[in-house]
Amino acid sequence: MIRKRERLEIIHDILVAIKDKKETKPTHVLYKSNLSHQMLTEYINDLIKKEFIEEKLSKDGKKTYSLKQRGFDYLKDYESIKSFMESYGLDE
C-alpha cells in the first residue's frame, strides 16, 4: 500500500531540495519535492512567513529560494526525530 506523505515530511522534502543548492529556483523545488504547483506555492508561502526560507528576486525578476537558520534547524531536528522513531520501530 502506498503511504501518503505527512505535512512534516513534505516540508522536509522542500527544505532538502532548497538546501541541495544554495539558491534554488522554484522549478527545481517543484520537481524535487514532487508536489503540484498549487501545493508548492502554499507550502512556500507558509515557509517564508514562518522564516524557514527566504525568497530573492534577481534583476530579471526570477525567484530563488534559500534556507534561513530556522530551516537548517528544522532539518537537524527532523533527522533526530526520524532516527528516534526508527530506533523504536515506529517509522512504519
Topology:
Layout: H1 7-20, H2 26-33, H3 37-49, E1 53-57, E2 63-67, H4 69-87
Antiparallel strand pairs: 1-2
Helix pairs in contact: 1-2, 1-4
Describe the structure in your own words.
The protein has 92 residues and is mostly helical. It has a single domain (7-87), classed as Orthogonal Bundle (Arc Repressor Mutant, subunit A). Helix content is 59%, strand content 11%. It has helices spanning 7-20, 26-33, 37-49, 69-87; strands at residues 53-57, 63-67. A two-stranded antiparallel ribbon has the order 1-2. A hairpin with a 5-residue loop joins strand 1 and strand 2. The longest helix is centred in the last third of the chain and has 19 residues, at 69-87. The termini are close together. The mean pLDDT is 92.
Count of helical regions: 4
Q: Assign the CATH class.
A: Mainly Alpha
Q: What ranges have pLDDT less than 50 throughout 5 or more consecutive residues?
A: none
Sheet having the most strands: 2 strands, antiparallel
Instruction: Look at the structure and give the mean pLDDT.
Output: 92
User: Quick one: overall form?
Assistant: globular
Instruction: Classify the helix fraction into a percent range.
Output: 55-70%
Going by CATH, what is the homologous superfamily? Winged helix-like DNA-binding domain superfamily/Winged helix DNA-binding domain
CATH fold type:
Arc Repressor Mutant, subunit A
